[in-house]
Amino acid sequence: MNSRPCAPAAAIAGTVFPHPVSPELASALRRALQALPQPPARFAVAVSGGADSAMLALHAAAVARETGAGVVLLHVHHGLQDAADGWRDQVEALADLLGLPLRQARVAVATAGGQGIEAAARDARYAALARLAAEEGVGLILLAHHRNDQAETVLLRLLRGTGLGGMAAMAPLTSRDGLAYLRPWLEQDRETILRAARQFAGATCWHAVQDPTNADPRYTRAALRELLAPVLDARWPGWRAIVARHARHVAQANEILDEVAREDFAALEPGPDGASFSLAAWRRLSPARQVHVLRHWLERNGARMPTEARMNDLLRQLRGLHSLGHDRQLRVEQAGHLIRCHRGRVWVEPRPGAGTLAPR
């Protein structure tokens, strides 16, 4: 890789940063970091070697100079592509260019659990990032998802029949495995990122890697990107911004519904651990709120959401029980959990391997 200087350095907050940066992308990143409850003294950036994550690493390095924050790059080698070693080499070259430390992990993607390759790779990547972050002692990882990714996620979840929470798509700030994940560019169009990548390449001769699966319609997201998106682009050029705005509105509505669900559940005379509630109190809710509070209750107890058909069956049984809940025939299994009714209370807990569910 030739790192010849081909463009003037960019001035950042009174200091000279040795690489050109995008004012729009730097400003968006700065706002996202400043909006955190506590600005991080040190954070990480997940870098694959593609244009999006490479530009996030570049702008993180630039913005961090303003505050003196420390930045570490994290790279996960999946080994799924023959070119993966080359991607690792490019990430190492990028880290050298930016003067940032790089930590790497190699993972084996297991698909025997019934997951598709995309989901399995994603889970393996998050697990590896969590390990690397723990080793580095950082609690915040930046991800390079942008508005195009957000729009694709909304469409994919819509086609898969997700619920309202899923339609909110990716949140700017989420937690997983005890870590905070920040997506500062969800409002940024990918063309802005690609333009910054071209400027960076012109200045340094460092070029982002290209993952062939991103354009392979055998993969679900790539199929949407290659087959459906061009049709939408031709008919509705601004569809990505519209869909991303829809995701924001759904997220806001979902926050309100979550507040309602918490208030409704608090009125159901819940048990100390939240695993049970009063059947009679639940029946006093409207049908729509009965459904919503059930979903809230199942989620807080770690149960997977039932399909619409299974939820309707659970509702039918709960509504048909004896008013005091003495009908012992209610027994609903839901993805490893068991739901039963005893003495007017509805219970859920992980399905035991043997024995019976003991009311508490």
TrEMBL record:
Its EC number is 6.3.4.19. It catalyses: cytidine(34) in tRNA(Ile2) + L-lysine + ATP = lysidine(34) in tRNA(Ile2) + AMP + diphosphate + H(+). ATP binds at S48, G49, G50, A51, D52, S53. Keywords: ATP-binding, Cytoplasm, Ligase, Nucleotide-binding, tRNA processing. Its main location: cytoplasm. One of its GO terms (molecular function) is tRNA(Ile)-lysidine synthase activity. One of its GO terms (biological process) is tRNA modification. It is an enzyme of class 6 (ligase). It holds the Pfam family ATP_bind_3. One of its GO terms (cellular component) is cytoplasm. Residues 43-226 form the tRNA(Ile)-lysidine/2-thiocytidine synthase N-terminal domain. It is found in: Cytoplasm. Residues 278-347 form the tRNA(Ile)-lysidine synthase substrate-binding domain. Gene3D superfamilies: 1.20.59.20, HUPs. Belongs to the tRNA(Ile)-lysidine synthase family. The N-terminal region contains the highly conserved SGGXDS motif, predicted to be a P-loop motif involved in ATP binding. NCBIfam families: lysidine_TilS_N. Ligates lysine onto the cytidine present at position 34 of the AUA codon-specific tRNA(Ile) that contains the anticodon CAU, in an ATP-dependent manner. Cytidine is converted to lysidine, thus changing the amino acid specificity of the tRNA from methionine to isoleucine. This is tRNA(Ile)-lysidine synthase. It comes from Achromobacter pulmonis.
